[in-house]
Poly [ADP-ribose] polymerase (Psylliodes chrysocephalus), 282 residues
Amino acid sequence: MGNILKWFKKSEQSENSDEDSTDDSDSEGLCVDGPVHRPNKKFLAKEDALKNNPETLKQFAFHFCNIARITQGIVTRKALDPTSKDFRNISQLFTHNNKKCFKITKIETVLNPFLLVQYNMKKRVYKIKEVPVKETILFHGVRKSNIDSICKSNFNWRLYGTNEGHKFGKGVSFSSSAFYASNYSDTGFEKVMIAVNVLIGKCCVGNENTEIPPVGFDTTTNETLNVYIKYEDNEFYPKYIIHYTGIDKEQESRMNEKNERKEFTSQRPLTLADYFNIPKLK
């Protein structure tokens, strides 16, 4: 594993040096008559070179697939230090508006080079094709029994989810709300949730019949824009495993009664989907 990590770091360093370097070397020890003019060279960014040469793009993909194949099956999980920056950042996202409901007991970081290479390759392809995407951290509630398989093989939109989970599309569901995602965790007091890196491009509002988003869209969402459904492989990477304790049944019952009274007495508000004019699928 140490050699693999060194390879990744060395690859990133060489990539950065390739993009920043120019050929400024001068010939030394040569005697010539008259002025010598250096030929003009046109340097292309790596993304431009790949975009203009489909064959090079194929070789690029083949190279990364080979690296991914070598690292397949290697998964490392490490508990984060509660004082670390990553722990604080994930805790803040997780406990937002839920401080009285959940208590984090441990956060683990997941390193799967095989999945990470595929995810980064997908992100690079979007960049080469000049497709605007945003990388964000979202939550996915999960049962403890599924943690190992997800860390090893990623989420599978063909297998995971229930009819209830397909309310906004038949793909993998993620949410910016840990409270919403917790509905799909274990029912016991001790629960787990995964914080996931997700690539989000163009969204439309989906429904339970959406099997794939329309042409030009890669993600479906709900009207309040806190649930996102992804339909393609490698557009998400399980980054952190959050171990936490949930609220007890008495607390949950009181909260449900309060929410039901609020929904009964209030009219439908203007949603974020309405505000941003996000199209809805019929």
Observations:
- DSSP finds nine helices and nine strands in the chain.
- The two ends are 48 Å apart (CA to CA).
